[in-house]
Amino acid sequence: MTLLNMLRSASDNKVLHFLLDEVMPPRKNLPRLNKRGSCNIRHITHDYKKSGLTDKDVLRWAQKEHRILVTADKFFIKPKNLQKTIAVIRISGGCKVEEIDRRLVRLIRLNPSPDYYFGKILVLSDKKVISESREDSPRTYKY
C-alpha cells in the first residue's frame, strides 16, 4: 500500500458516509449536514439514479459501500437481523426537512466516529435517541 493510499484510508476512517433512502429529501436540502466536512452524503435516487428498490436491496447497497443508511421506514430491518457491517438511522415522527437536518447534525456532534454507528439501528425522535443492536436491549438517551 502506498503512503497516499494509507493517508486516504486513515482520513476515511473519520468520515461518516451516509446513504439517504429514497423517502428522504435530496441532500441539497440538508444544508447543516452538507456543511460538515466529516460527512460524505449520497442519495439512492438523486445520486445513484436508483428508485423502486426493495428495502433489502437498499440495505445491501449501503452495506456494500460501508454507508450509514438514513431512512424514515421503520420496517427496514429488525435488530435480531443486524450485522456489524450494517448501520441504520431512522428518523421518526414525520418531521420537516429542517428538523431532519438538525437531528442528524445533533447526533453527529455527539458521535463523530463511524464505528459508533455500525451494528445498530438508531431511532431519532425529537429529543431522544433509541439505540438498538443485536446483542443489547434498546437504550434511550437524550441528545
Commentary on this structure:
This protein is α/β, with parallel strands linked by helices. It has one domain (16-142). It is built from 4 helices and 7 strands, in the order αβαβαββαβββ. The protein has a 7-stranded mixed beta sheet with strand order 2-1-3-4-5-6-7, sandwiched between helices.
Major sheet: arrangement of strands: 2-1-3-4-5-6-7
> Strand portion, in percent?
15-25%
Q: End-to-end span in angstroms? A: 40 Å
- Arithmetic mean pLDDT: 86
Using the CA coordinates, give the radius of gyration.
15 Å
Number of domains: 1
The rough form would be described as globular
Question: Structural class from helices and strands?
Answer: alpha/beta
The profile of the biggest β sheet is: 7 strands, mixed
Number of helices, counting only DSSP H or I runs of 4 residues or more: 4
Q: Determine the fraction of residues in helical runs and give it as a percent range.
A: 25-40%
Counted beta strands: 7
Taken in chain order, the helices and strands follow as HEHEHEEHEEE
- Poorly predicted sequence stretches spanning 5 or more consecutive residues: 3-11
Helix-strand blueprint:
Blueprint: H1 3-12, E1 16-20, H2 31-35, E2 39-43, H3 55-64, E3 68-71, E4 87-91, H4 97-110, E5 120-124, E6 128-133, E7 139-142
In short:
The chain has one domain. The model is unreliable at 3-11 (pLDDT under 50).
Question: Key terms for this structure?
Answer:
single chain; 143 residues; alpha/beta; seven-stranded mixed beta sheet; 4 helices; 24% strand; globular
